[in-house]
Amino acid sequence: MPVKIPDNLPAAGILESENIFVMSETRAANQDIRPMKVLILNLMPNKIETETQLLRLLGNTPLQVDVDLLRIHDKESKHTSIDHMNNFYRDFEAIRQKNYDGLIITGAPLGQIEFEDVTYWDHIREIIDWSQRHVTSVLFLCWAAHAALYHLYGLNRKLLESKRSGVFLHRRTNKHFPLLRGFDDEFLAPHSRFAQIDVAALKAHPALQVLTESDEAGAYMVLSTNSRNLFVMGHPEYQKMTLKDEYLRDLAEGLNPDIPQNYFRDNDPDKEPVARWHGHGSLLVSNWLNYYVYQLTPYNLDDMSAIAPWEADVK
Questions:
Q1: Around Cβ 127, how many Cβ atoms within 10 Å?
Q2: Where in the chain is the domain with CATH 3.40.50.880?
Q3: Could you say which of 142, 170, 246, 280 is catalytic?
Q4: Is 237 a catalytic residue?
Q5: Active site annotation includes 176
Q6: Which CATH class is domain 32-159+195-236+281-313?
Q7: H-only helix segments in the chain
Q8: 311 catalytic, yes or no?
Q9: Which tens digits make up the pLDDT trace of 148-169?
Q10: Which of 14, 20, 101, 314 is the most exposed place for a label (fewest CB within 10 A)?
Q11: Which of 191, 237, 246, 280 is flagged as catalytic?
Q12: How do residues 191-247 score in pLDDT, each as one tens digit?
């Protein structure tokens, strides 16, 4: 949240140059405040676990956030009861005519499947297109980031020889974005995926900006130049045991997975994992919600034209 200061205070220019968000008394007095409306499209198998992870991050902000949960289809889930889905999730048709301040689309266990072979690919494309007209800012995570970069900007991923799993060191490539306020020069973030989009291709695209990257894991945070779409290639929402649970699951299925890198103490899977990314994961979502949703969204959500058009930014 901003620091409210007197009009024309000399410190304002200094603080703004340091990426500290300040607001004059005049602007603060004329602000209209209401709850943020955020939609979550949950594509992960264990819906409840992912809900909890994302809500934990959204709750770490002084903003009031009203959340709707969206499902991609009404088929029975193997890992979540049909009662839970029917009670708490909406179908797309129920929200198609609504506008939202923010949308989060999660990852999905589809890393080795061609996009066009995904059973609900047409539906995913429809929701992505809808989001460009009905949502102020969209946060795409992991698989969803790759899917959206492919659909919106024509950038395809490349499959890796083995799953990239672990916690990797990243650096900021540009310090002057509100999304990176409070970030250290280097920070850790978890990844769990089978594919990667070439960093050079991302940097060469005129509608995209690579904000953070890793020598080992590639691009991590990519922002569209119109600030509407944020692509995060990893999992800032993951909790301490999530990578371990995935690793044990893959072992049980006979997949012979590599040990997640830089994750277990002494890189020994018999020892406890070490969580070293929660602070920056929380900061990422808080900054997105504040600077790219709250600060940009119209007070009246029926007036999306106040922040449009966005379509010129995509292919």
A1: 24
A2: 32-159+195-236+281-313
A3: 142
A4: yes
A5: no
A6: alpha beta
A7: 11-17, 25-29, 47-58, 82-88, 92-95, 121-134, 143-153, 199-204, 242-252, 278-287
A8: no
A9: 999 999 999 999 999 999 999 9
A10: 14
A11: 237
A12: 999 999 999 999 999 999 999 999 999 999 999 999 999 999 999 999 999 999 999
